Amino acid sequence: MRIACFTVDLDRDVNIPISPWEAGSTDRGHGVAPRFKSTAKGSRMLSKLFTETGIDATFFAEARTLQEVSDDILDYEIAMHGLEHEDLSMLDENDTEQIIFDASDIIWDIAGQRPEGFRAPYMKPNDEMYEILLDAGVTYDSSNYVDVSKTIRPYELNGLTEIPVPKDTDGNGKNIYGYLWAMHENKRSPQDYIDLASKMEDGVFVIATHSWHMVESVDDGMMDSARKKVNLENVRQVIEGLQKKGFEFTSMSHASRITF
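Above: the chain sequence. Below: its structure as tokens.
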């Protein structure tokens, strides 16, 4: 069984660490205060694309960003991605607990339900978070990478169901991850990700991106209309390419409950 999950990290535009407790946005001439405009635009683009391609998806929402950007995504699963995009690997148990429960409360207020899933900001979990997540009602996590293989199935990790993001080394010896980051920066093609997924014959293949990356490049700044169009088409090609390979798209929460 080939299952695909398209996941979107909903966080402040082109986030950069300010401290272990918070992140700002890359300075585009107005300082590093958090921005949300690119995230809002990208979320609308992705939501429309998901409708057009007929797939379900999961948004891992940084809670403060969800307060700024919630239109167009509440029909999808809302999972948790921290409060202020904290680096949990540098925080203690008390800080982690406060972040997780505050973020869960905000998601509850906006989405009307507690998040079932969690992804650590920067993909940097800490050892204390798993028990806290369980206490907060979270049932699955996606904060770890796994080498791609013929079988990639969710597994138990510290009481949670872990649904990892795949990674591999290509023929040129360069790393490739399930994150579409390199494609948005014009450093990889849609086919690279289709080929990566094709190596898996059974299990759950996770694709990940950031909503702001639909309209803003890390290296080049705001995209013009032509580049945004190409960027969107590239994401469409990844989705449709996996569909042609026999992948069935579903939410992360549903994938976490499938018996393989």
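The CA atoms of residues 96 and 182 lie 30 Å apart.
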